[in-house]
Amino acid sequence: MVKTTNFKRLSDSKFWFGAHVSASGGVSNSVENAFNIGCNSFALFLKSPRKWESKPYTLDEINKFKDNCKKFGYNPRTEILPHGQYFINLANPELEKAEKSYNSFIDDLKRCESLDIGLYNFHPGSSLKGDHETQLKQLAGYINKAIKETSFVKIVLENMAGTGNLVGSDLKDLKYVIDLVENKDRIGVCIDTCHTFAAGYDLLDDEYEKFWENFDSIIGFKYLSAIHLNDSKTPLGANRDLHEKLGEGYIGLNFLKKFVKSQFLTNIPIILETPILKDDNEYGEEIKLLEWIAYETPSQEEFEEKIEKLQAKGAKSRKDQMDAFIIKQKKNNSTSKKRAILDNSKDITEMFGKKRKTDK
Q1: For residue 234, what is the DSSP state?
Q2: On the CB side of 112, how many CA atoms lie within 13 Å of its CA?
Q3: Per-residue pLDDT tens for 273-303?
Q4: Cα–Cα distance between 141 and 138 in angstroms, integer?
Q5: How far apart are CA 188 and CA 26, in angstroms?
Q6: pTM of the complete model beyond 0.85
Q7: What is the topology classification, in CATH, of domain 16-313?
Q8: Which residues contact 230 (CB under 8 A, 6 or more apart)?
Q9: Torsion over CA of 284, 288, 289 and 290, rounded to 10 degrees?
Q10: Is 243 a catalytic residue?
Q11: φ and ψ at 240, to 5 degrees?
């Protein structure tokens, strides 16, 4: 990743805009990487996301991380949001695999506490072929166990884009798990805007307020601990976890106008996970875009020009994804019709079968 100092950090921002940055070469490097692109918060992987086990941190690396947080002005208890490994699945009905996930999970939490990091975000997993409610209880059980084995780090559940057995596509899943967590001070929620939109929760126009009213009634704002701020390559309800750069996807920039007026989103990490093609400088540019919308009050003409420019950049991708979405919908509708015909045929067969038996 290319380092730069062109993106000055807006230290008095009430919105903690940031990004997922590289920790290559040592976890302590993540702090300077975040500072160089103007982050007010940031995310990182605590270890390799591609393998189950990684070497423990050296004391020297831990001290460098803490020193860098002081040097560059980050509070690790509130402004840093590590992301758990994607293959952790504490809801897995196969106990051996769930235990393997837990070992990686608890290792992450202990790494957080060694670095004095106060938040930890992860994907809540999938119940796979198990009973969904049973696996939600298992997930909560592992969280309770982890809380007892650690001291202060808050475990942050992320909402998801898929449907069915994937935990967290429905906000009620997260509520169910939170209700079973014994220490409510150690549990929170991260809302990913791409996942939200893909799961079928509209964020555009008046639906923006309705979503947050829904969130508050189901989960409660007191549990809102972070945001992953991403546009969506796919249309509403596509159930695909495909992040897009801000303004180039189906959510667009108008959503951000409402976003930066939401006081309940202040003083929590707001993390970009949008695709970067070259280096982290692209995150710096997007952070400045967010600050432009939030603090520079662009004219309507300027804003519309920005919308047109970014929508044009993402036009081909949106078309490709919409075409794929339509094909998928047609296939699903065809399958549903075939099932309905088969079910109807089965009902008729059973009805006439019973009648023949009665006639005898």
Answers
A1: S
A2: 34
A3: 999 988 889 999 999 999 999 999 899 999 9
A4: 5
A5: 28
A6: yes
A7: TIM Barrel (3.20.20)
A8: 192, 193, 194, 243, 244, 246, 272, 273, 274
A9: 100
A10: yes
A11: -125, 130
Which residue, among 260, 275, 244, has the nearest Cα to 208 in the 3D structure?
260
Distance CA 96, CA 267 (A): 39
- The catalytically annotated residue of 60, 86, 304, 320 is 86
Our answer to whether residue 241 is catalytic in this structure is yes
Per the annotation, the verdict on 347 as an active-site residue is no
Structure tokens at 71: 């040097």
Alpha carbon distance 127, 106 (integer Å): 20
Catalytic residue among 32, 50, 53, 67: 50
The one-letter amino acid at 216: D
Domain ranges in the chain are: 16-313, 314-360
* DSSP state at residue 184: G
Query: Residue 357 is which amino acid?
Result: K
192 is catalytic: yes
20 in catalytic set: no
Q: Is 305 in the active site?
A: no
Q: Which of 192, 231, 248, 291 is catalytic?
A: 192
* Helix or strand run (H / E) with residue 58: none
Catalytic residue among 108, 170, 231, 241: 241
- How far apart (Å, rounded) are the C-alpha atoms in residues 116 and 119? 9
List, for residues 58-105, the tens digit of each pLDDT value: 999 999 999 999 999 999 999 999 999 999 999 999 999 999 999 999
The 8 Å CB, 24+ separation contacts for 144-148 are: 144/180, 144/181, 144/182, 144/183, 145/102, 146/102, 146/105, 146/106, 146/109, 147/181, 147/182, 147/183, 147/186
Q: Which of 102, 243, 283, 286 is catalytic?
A: 243
Q: What SS3 state is found at 245?
A: coil
Give catalytic status of residue 86 as yes or no. Answer: yes
